[in-house]
Structure formats: structure tokens, C-alpha cells
């Protein structure tokens, strides 16, 4: 009988199945091997250039090289703004895996306060261009640098960079004129040229630093470096050097600037001095000042709030933004306008009973001397600062001609060539009042303008500029702060300079100057005490700006008023009379009469400029002011 196992097993069939399976397995292996080899060929041969470039990028990095910011000097080559080496902490977000964890480590390592940590995180998350490092902290100390170096392996994307940081040696005195640089913010980043500002963390924010940013900044460079897996630089492969910013030489005289600041003695006010023939601003001080170096590295919130809340407003640039009634300082300008318009002659006189009345008006517009000056001509009206004469003159001129004539001297407009943030102040007019208040102009308002009160507002820079134009006998030279950019001189004749003021009789300038000289040297001059022992001829005019208006029968008594309600003291002057070398405008807030305070400061400035070997002693000037009882208070 046949074995049943033979009927259950078919060797031939099993052999065929084995061969088919073996064939399929070999075929699969061959196909997979072919695919693998094909992919290898594709990557190694076809895509060689692509992956070779990617590989190169993994070990070759392009780094920006920020330019060195140009230095700023005074007219005598004294350094006003320099660059000091420092270490900054930066973070490149694209190289950081966990931003929050990295920031936590940094805050712990640097022992930041909660306030500093908040600013830290804000700067880390500010929008930056791809692979552009964000500046987290400036001016690291040695201990901080050491802690960061030890923990470098835990901080991918974090670098400590050696850079030059702006520093102002005379920050308090120069803060408003020079301005300062600060960190580039997100809004500024959108507007800046990415190539030119690559790697740059600071930009001019105010003053000269802001106006001449394009000149001072320069052009960024770059370098190619080879790095290891941890990002550490192994060697430099190529470099395009940055172009440093140009140095800037200003017209300011540091010693004169320091003197002006010391003369103000921390009182609220401003002193501006200009060389009339060239328009060079010799000094431009606003007091009180502030430490501009705080803003370079980033001022802390508490310090900034203290500056903002300071009642004396140290951040406010009074020299170019402070707006004050010019008071009697504008009387020489009005006299010239009356001559030019044929309203008066130098010999014409009026009788001053101590007040002026408009036709058919019972209101009395008072002279500062209540019993009047009697018979007054133009020169005497300037010397004694007679209000009645100028009420009459303003009424005859009318606001339209008065506005036109005063605008020719620069009132009501920005006068500086390169003065960033300057205010135009206000030269009122009929059209201005209609647009501002929807009201007509009244004759009484013209009288107020005629003695520098009412709506009329000037800045110290405007008043100094108008004084310089007057000293130049009508020739306009626009004020400027830059004397040289690099090695190139800034021209005296600048574009959009206003037209010169031309009058029909050149002798009228001399008559105006004579009246101004009598202010200081005449027996009745309001600032006669200031003119004692003058070694040169000087013309000036005192002024008193009211902080609030008095009623018709009210009398001003400074002793009864709070200090900040007292009148502002003003004085404008130029010297020497025959060949003016300096024009000065002084405003001291709430100091009372200009002849008993501001005039002495103006005299000290002209002495310092014209008598270099006999520079005034500040303490002596203060003593003279304290003992000055002979000048006219209130004018």
C-alpha cells in the first residue's frame, strides 16, 4: 500500500515556490539597491553644487562690521563727543532653540532686577532682520563678562561683542546742543538702510547727533569667518572694511559754553551767542541740563521718570523750543520798522504822561514808569525803554506792517540751518488770530505786541539771530552749528537764507545803535550799571516778559508773588558797536527785570569773547548782580 505521506508532499511544487520566492526576493533587493544607488548618484553628482553650498554655509558665516562713529569737536579742536571701548551683549534669535529658557539663564547670570529683566525681554523680542543680532545690554562689567564666558556652552546664539560706545565728557553742559545717541528701536529699524546699518545698535536721537546722523554714522562692512559646530570663529576668510563716519567740527566754543552754563547757575533759562558776520553759533545753553550719557546705554525707568517729573524740565531745550514774550528787547526792531515805513523819524518826539490811550477808548496802557518820561524821541525811547512811545508807534504801524517787518528779522520762523527740533514760536498776525480763535484782531492787541507782550513769542535762538541781523545792518547770515564736516568747510552762504533788510537811509542804523549804546552807557540807560568800565562800545536792550497779565490799575510786586509767577528777565546785545563780533540773547525765567539780571550775564559773555585775557570771574558777576540797585527794575 502506498505511503500516505507521499500523497501529502509534492517536492516539485515546493521547489517551484521556493524559486519564485527567491527570485522575487533577489529582484526586490536589486530594485532597492538600484534605488539607493540612484539616489546616491543624484545627491552626489546631480545635486553636488546645492549641497556643497549648504555645507559651506554651515561652517562659513558672514558677520557685519559696524563703522566707527565720527567724533565731534568744538571750534578749537576740543573733543565734545568720543567713542569708548565697551562690551555689549547680543542675541541672534535664529540661533536660539528656546528663547525663554535662554533669557531665564541670562537674567540669573547677570542678576537683573525685575525692571531690567522686563526691558531685557522686550529688546530680545523686538523685530529684527533675519540673523541680525539684537542688543540686549551695553557696557558689561568684568564680572558679567566672566560669568557669560564660563556659561557660553549653555547660551547658543548669545555673544559678547567688543564695540565702541558714545561718551560725552561735558554731558550736562552740552546735552541740549549735541543731543545724544540711543538704541535703534523697531520703528527706526524699518526706515534704515539694512546694508548701511548692519551690526549697528545706536543712532542719533536729538541735537547735532540726530541732524548729522548720515555724516557721523559711516558705512558698515562685513567679514566671512569659518566656525566650528558650536559657532566659535576659527579663522577669517575675507573682509570688506567698514567706512568710518566723518568727524564733525562745530562752531561752539567749549569755554564760552561752560561760562554760559555757570552764569545761569542752575536757574531756568538760556543763553545763545552768535558771531554776526559768519552765523556761527558760539554758545547755545539751556539750563538746567542733564546727563546725556544715561541715554546712550539705556536710561532706567526710575531715572527717566525723575527727569520727566522734574518741575524744572531739564529735558526741555529752552534755547530752541522755549517760547517767551520778548518784552522790550524788540524795541530797536520796531523803531527801525517805523523808520522804514515812514511812520517816525529819529527826531520825532512824543509827550509821555505815563500812559497811552487809543482814540475813543478810556483804557490806559501804562508806561513802566507810572509818572512818565516827558518828552521822548526815538533814541531816548530805546535808552529808557519807554512804553508809551512804542504804544504810539505800534498803533501807527498797525499789525499788518508790524508783522511783515518783524518777520523779516526771523521772528515767527525757524532760523537755524542745522538745529534739530527748533520751534518757530509765534509772530502774531490778523490771519493767525482768525485761524486760531475765529476772532478779529483788536487795536489793543497791537499795542501789546508793540512792547513785546500779548501773543508774540520768541525763542532765545530767534532773539539772538535777530540781534545778529541788526548788528549786521540788515545782512542775513543763517545761524549754524557745523563749521567743518570732515575736512570740508561749511559755507557761510547757505541755501534758503532770508533776504537782507534794506532801508533807504543807512544813517538810521547808526541812530538805532546809538540808542542801544545809551542803554548801557547813558545816564538814563536801563542797564547803566552793567555798562560800568566797559572797554569797548556795546549796544543792548533789556526786556521783561510778563508771566501773567495785570489789570489796568494793578501794580506788579515781585515780593508778593510765588517765584514761578515772577517776570522773566531778558537782554539782547552785540559788541563792539563799530564791528560786531558777538551777538547775545539771554533769558532767565522768573528773575525779574532784564536790566538787573540778564544784562550782567550778557556783559560777561561779551567780555569773555572780546577780552580773552580778562575773562570774567563768575563769582564776581554774581556779586555784582546781587548788589545792583541802580539799574531800572522791571525793564
From TrEMBL:
Transmembrane segments: 20-42
Active site: 328
GO MF annotation terms: serine-type D-Ala-D-Ala carboxypeptidase activity
First-listed, main subcellular location of the protein, grouped into a coarse class: membrane
Keywords in alphabetical order: Carboxypeptidase, Cell inner membrane, Cell membrane, Cell shape, Cell wall biogenesis/degradation, Hydrolase, Membrane, Peptidoglycan synthesis, Protease, Transmembrane, Transmembrane helix
Keyword Ligase recorded: no
Membrane topology: Single-pass membrane protein
Record's keyword annotation contains ATP-binding: no
Enzyme class label: hydrolase
Lineage top rank: taxon: Bacteria
Location(s), subcellular: Cell inner membrane; Cell membrane; Membrane
SUPFAM superfamilies: beta-lactamase/transpeptidase-like, Penicillin binding protein dimerisation domain
Reactions mediated catalytically: Preferential cleavage: (Ac)2-L-Lys-D-Ala-|-D-Ala. Also transpeptidation of peptidyl-alanyl moieties that are N-acyl substituents of D-alanine
Domain Penicillin-binding protein dimerisation: 65-237
Enzyme Commission number(s) of this protein: 3.4.16.4
Every Penicillin-binding protein transpeptidase domain range: 269-604
Pathway per the UniProt entry: Cell wall biogenesis; peptidoglycan biosynthesis
Biological function: Catalyzes cross-linking of the peptidoglycan cell wall.
Family: Belongs to the transpeptidase family. MrdA subfamily.
Protein name: Peptidoglycan D,D-transpeptidase MrdA
Phylogenetic classification of the source organism: Bacteria, Pseudomonadati, Pseudomonadota, Gammaproteobacteria, Oceanospirillales
Amino acid at each position: 500500500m502506498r505511503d500516505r505521506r507521499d500523497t501529502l508532499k509534492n517536492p516539485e511544487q515546493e521547489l517551484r515556490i521556493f524559486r519564485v520566492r527567491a527570485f522575487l526576493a533577489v529582484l526586490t533587493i536589486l530594485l532597492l539597491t538600484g534605488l539607493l544607488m540612484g539616489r546616491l548618484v543624484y545627491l552626489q553628482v546631480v545635486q553636488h553644487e546645492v549641497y556643497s553650498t549648504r555645507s559651506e554655509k554651515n561652517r562659513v558665516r558672514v558677520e557685519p562690521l559696524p563703522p566707527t562713529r565720527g567724533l565731534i569737536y568744538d571750534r578749537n579742536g576740543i573733543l565734545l563727543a568720543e567713542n569708548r571701548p565697551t562690551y555689549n551683549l547680543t542675541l541672534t534669535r535664529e540661533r536660539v532653540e528656546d528663547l525663554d529658557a535662554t533669557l531665564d539663564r541670562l537674567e540669573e547670570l547677570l542678576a537683573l532686577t525685575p525692571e531690567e529683566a522686563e526691558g531685557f525681554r522686550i529688546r530680545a523680542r523686538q523685530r529684527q532682520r533675519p540673523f541680525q543680532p539684537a542688543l540686549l545690554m551695553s557696557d558689561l562689567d568684568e564680572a558679567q563678562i566672566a560669568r557669560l564666558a564660563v556659561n557660553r556652552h549653555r547660551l547658543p546664539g548669545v555673544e559678547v561683542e567688543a564695540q565702541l560706545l558714545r561718551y560725552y565728557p561735558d554731558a550736562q553742559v552740552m546735552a541740549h546742543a549735541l543731543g545724544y545717541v540711543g538704541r535703534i528701536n523697531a520703528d527706526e529699524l524699518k526706515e534704515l538702510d539694512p546694508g548701511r546699518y548692519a551690526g549697528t545698535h545706536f543712532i542719533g536721537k536729538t541735537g547735532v547727533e540726530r541732524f548729522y546722523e548720515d555724516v557721523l554714522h559711516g558705512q558698515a562692512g562685513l567679514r566671512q569667518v569659518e566656525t566650528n559646530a558650536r559657532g566659535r570663529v576659527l579663522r577669517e576668510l575675507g573682509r570688506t572694511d567698514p567706512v568710518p563716519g566723518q568727524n564733525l567740527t562745530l562752531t561752539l566754543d567749549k569755554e564760552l559754553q561752560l561760562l554760559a552754563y555757570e552764569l545761569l547757575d542752575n536757574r531756568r533759562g538760556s543763553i545763545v551767542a552768535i558771531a554776526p558776520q559768519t552765523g556761527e553759533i558760539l554758545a547755545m545753553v539751556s539750563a538746567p541740563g542733564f546727563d546725556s550719557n544715561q541715554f546712550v546705554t539705556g536710561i532706567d525707568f526710575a531715572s527717566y521718570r525723575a527727569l520727566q517729573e522734574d518741575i524744572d524740565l531739564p529735558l526741555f531745550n529752552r534755547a530752541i523750543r522755549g517760547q517767551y514774550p520778548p518784552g522790550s528787547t524788540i524795541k530797536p526792531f520796531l523803531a527801525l520798522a517805523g523808520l522804514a515805513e515812514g511812520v517816525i523819524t529819529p527826531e520825532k518826539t512824543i509827550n509821555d504822561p505815563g500812559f497811552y490811550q487809543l482814540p475813543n477808548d478810556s483804557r490806559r496802557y501804562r508806561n513802566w514808569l507810572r509818572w512818565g518820561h516827558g518828552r521822548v524821541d526815538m533814541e531816548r525811547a530805546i535808552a529808557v525803554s519807554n512804553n508809551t512811545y512804542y504804544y504810539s508807534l505800534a498803533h501807527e504801524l498797525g499789525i499788518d506792517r508790524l508783522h511783515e517787518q518783524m518777520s523779516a528779522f526771523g521772528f515767527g520762523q525757524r532760523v537755524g540751518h542745522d538745529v534739530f527740533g527748533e520751534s518757530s514760536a509765534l509772530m502774531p498776525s490778523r490771519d493767525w488770530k482768525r485761524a486760531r480763535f475765529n476772532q478779529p484782531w483788536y487795536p489793543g492787541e497791537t499795542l501789546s505786541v508793540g512792547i513785546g507782550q500779548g501773543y508774540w513769542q520768541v525763542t532765545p535762538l530767534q532773539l539772538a539771530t535777530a540781534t545778529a541781523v541788526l548788528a549786521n545792518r540788515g545782512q542775513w547770515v543763517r545761524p549754524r552749528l557745523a563749521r567743518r564736516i570732515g575736512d570740508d568747510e561749511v559755507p557761510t552762504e547757505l541755501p534758503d537764507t532770508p533776504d537782507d533788510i534794506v532801508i533807504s537811509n543807512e544813517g538810521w542804523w547808526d541812530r538805532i545803535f546809538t540808542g542801544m549804546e545809551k542803554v548801557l552807557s547813558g545816564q538814563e540807560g536801563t542797564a547803566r550799571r552793567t555798562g560800568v568800565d566797559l572797554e569797548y562800545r556795546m549796544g543792548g536792550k533789556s526786556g521783561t516778559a510778563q508771566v501773567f497779565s495785570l489789570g489796568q490799575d494793578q501794580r506788579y510786586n515781585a515780593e508778593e508773588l510765588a517765584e514761578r509767577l515772577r517776570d522773566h528777565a531778558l537782554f539782547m546785545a552785540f559788541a563792539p558797536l563799530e564791528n560786531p563780533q558777538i551777538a547775545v540773547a539771554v533769558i532767565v525765567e522768573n528773575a525779574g527785570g532784564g536790566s538787573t539780571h540778564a544784562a550782567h550775564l550778557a556783559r560777561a559773555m561779551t567780555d569773555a569773547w572780546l577780552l580773552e585775557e580778562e575773562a570774567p570771574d563768575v563769582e564776581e558777576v554774581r556779586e555784582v548782580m546781587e548788589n545792583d540797585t541802580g539799574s531800572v527794575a522791571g525793564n
